[in-house]
Amino acid sequence: MPPRIKRPRSPTPSLDDTSDLPASPNKAKKLKLLASHSTASPFPDFPHPTPTEAARVHALLVETHPDLADRPRIPSEENDSAWTCGSVPNVLESLIGTILSQNTSARNSTAAKRGLDAAFGRNNFAAIAEARKEDVVEAIRTGGLANKKAGVIQRILEEVYKRHGEYSLQHLAAVAEPGGKGKDKDGSKISDEEAMQELVSYDGVGPKTASCVLLFCLGRSSFPVDTHVFRLSRLLGWVPQKADRVTAQAHLDLTVPDELKYGLHVLMVGHGRRCKGCKGSGGGKADCVLKKWLRERKDGKEELDVKAEPGVEKLDSLAQYVTPVKTED
Fold first, then answer.
1. Which of 76, 80, 90, 177 has its CA 20 to 30 A from that of 50?
2. Left if phi > 0, otherwise alpha if psi is -120 to 50, otherwise beta: which for 85?
3. In sequence order, what are the residues at sequence separation of 6 or more whose Cβ sits closer than 8 angstroms to the Cβ of residue 85?
């Protein structure tokens, strides 16, 4: 039986500053689920992906989509937080932009973020929080699900202010250190797990949205699982068929090596959007580099040994593509 997949436990984050907020059954369920999967995979006896398998798929996708194999994008004020899935320095703006990108195209979510900025001013969170809901809905209408997203955004802003006394989540980003650590405004360290815990504690923020903020804004090691990543992970046999997106993310965040998370996520999303051979719109009949690789493995043409030195060499050789970016936000 393969070893159980675990990670060292980090200190349980304190949520004392939320004691004055009404408890949400959904929030409690999310936090309980996150805690149960933060140190052990929901599928502890499922052995895939191995580090070598993850590295090989990364290499194949780099060869197939070299334009997507750039180094991680550094969060910039010039970026649109919706278009880039949150790659901006301001953590709260990153979170709002990622919410706007849910269940819509990049084009529509970008238009929604621009509409929000035009109506209230960029990062004028107080104005958004205090506005009539219908005005926020009108500003982001082009992004789809405007009524729902407006409510989520305003509730998050209200809760952030109640917890921290300001419209800011920068304590999750300040003074980034190696290993995805950071320091909050009181000087204490915040682990990746603690940052994820706070983000998902806000109503309307799920593990995928929080993971995007961690990866693209905070430069932390996290592996968001969207529709494309989930579909390809099932194709590759990296998660059991019974897995859903939440449990798949919990499993893959523990099994995909940290140095591969950014690059592999970007490449899998890009491949999922482009490849007609592994999605329904192309009938699944076109060529797909991943399906070809799976056939070759099945036929014995490619040997994958998780203990073999070549696997380690592959991981090292990919460092130029996947060096984690640590930023001060």
1. 177
2. left
3. 97, 98, 101, 212, 216, 224
- Condensed to tens digits (0 to 9), the pLDDT of residues 147-186 reads 999 999 999 999 999 999 999 999 997 544 444 444 444 5
From 27, 30, 149, 208, the catalytic residue: 208
Largest CA distance in the chain: 63
In angstroms, the CA 265 to CA 222 distance is 9
Cα gap 304→307, rounded to integer Å: 9
Respond yes or no: is residue 208 known to be catalytic. yes
The residue assigned the tokens 């090596």 is 257
Amino acid symbol at 223:
F
Q: Is the dihedral of CA 234, 240, 245, 248 positive or negative?
A: negative
**pLDDT, tens only, 260-300:** 999 999 999 999 999 999 875 555 577 899 999 999 988 87
- Quick one: which of 111, 148, 151, 149 has its CA closest to 131? 151
Cα gap 223→272, rounded to integer Å = 16
Q: What is the pTM assigned to this prediction?
A: 0.78
